[in-house]
Amino acid sequence: MKLTREEFQKYIYAYNEDEIFYKTLYLQEKEHPETFHEYCLTLDRELIYEHRLFVPELQAEAWYPYMKEADLFHDMNGNIVLSKHYRYTPVFSHEHEFFEILCVYDGTTHTTIQGIEHTLHTGDICIIPPHTTHSVGIFDDSVAFNILVRGSTFQSTFFQSLTADSALAQFFAHVLYRKTEGNYLIFHSGNDPQIHDMLENLYIEYLGHAKYSYTFLNSMLIMFWAMLLRYHENDIESILTKDSTGNSVTEILGYLNRHYQSVSLSEAAEHFGYSSSHFSTLIKESTGRTFLQIIRDIKLNQACRALRETSLSNHAICELVGYESPEHFMRTFKKTYGMTPGEYRKKNKE
């Protein structure tokens, strides 16, 4: 049965049995630390086992330090799971094989990602990639929930929203998949009612278990990414932008996507107030690619699109995407794709 919006809000704010257990445990330790251990020994072990509750005082080893996709999705046909983060749950560090999207529905949430602490607020959407050590803590009436997504589904939904913007896609891929510490992306959507409503709709659809629900969830997730990118492309924080006092990388990449036909490194650097050398380093560190590689990829991406969707000649496409020499365009295209523009057009039209 599909919940109304009012029923959902009542559900998400209400304390369930497990949250009440955790809150009682938290207050007991805070108010009576001297007798806390003895209190834990009196707890119902059977209840703790059946509900999979975490009581550090009774835990001899790490609690779910790593979870595989098969552990979460083994008995499901779908690839997306939504779950409320239980308030007052003791903080524990863990990793998993799937993507986690932490959504702060209301209030404040504290998270640590690869040792870096963050305070998230209402409307913050934090994407945590696989194999990233993190923890979450909520010790008041704030509300947050997780969207857990199989890796292959995340790629097919998130990056589908970026097909027309290869430079931005490269930036996100670099942040989410690079093998360094602190990988994460945070969209600061604030009190955007459209994002808030979309999150509610996603969760309501998930709880409803209606026919074709998995198809709806996948489609809604694509729409969710598209909305974030449309309205909050410049409200993104990552390990690569957190300490920057200048322009955001997404703004820079957006500029390159609009001016790729003719922009030079020095012109782009001057536009954003950097020296050419500093701007070049910033681009390389943020995307894993050089300025020239990014411009080349944008040009070729647009050329491929023109080859697929128009009947323009190779010479006209060469001029359209900003190559001065048709020979250079043909040579670069063949080196990149292993075929000539004509062969690419024939293959993709067929």
Q: What is the succession of H and E elements?
A: HHHHEHEEEEEEEEHHEHHEHHHHHHH
- The computed structural class is alpha+beta
Radius of gyration: 24 Å
Count of DSSP helices? 16
Strand percentage lies at 5-15%
Main sheet attributes: strand count, strand direction, barrel closure:
6 strands, antiparallel
- Low-pLDDT stretches are none
Provide a descriptive summary of the structure in words.
The protein is of the alpha+beta class. It has helices at 5-13, 17-31, 36-41, 45-50, 69-73, 151-158, 166-177, 193-208, 213-232, 249-259, 265-272, 276-287, 291-309, 314-321, 326-337, 341-349; strands spanning 66-67, 80-84, 95-96, 99-106, 108-113, 116-121, 124-128, 134-137, 143-149, 185-188, 236-238. The strands form three sheets. Strands 2-9-4-7-10-11 form a six-stranded antiparallel sheet. Helix 13 (291-309) packs antiparallel against helix 14. The longest helix is centred in the middle third of the chain and has 20 residues, at 213-232. The protein starts with a helix and ends with a helix. The model has no long low-confidence stretch (mean pLDDT 89).
Relevant terms:
six-stranded antiparallel sheet, 350 residues, single chain, three-stranded antiparallel sheet, 50% helix, alpha+beta, 16 helices
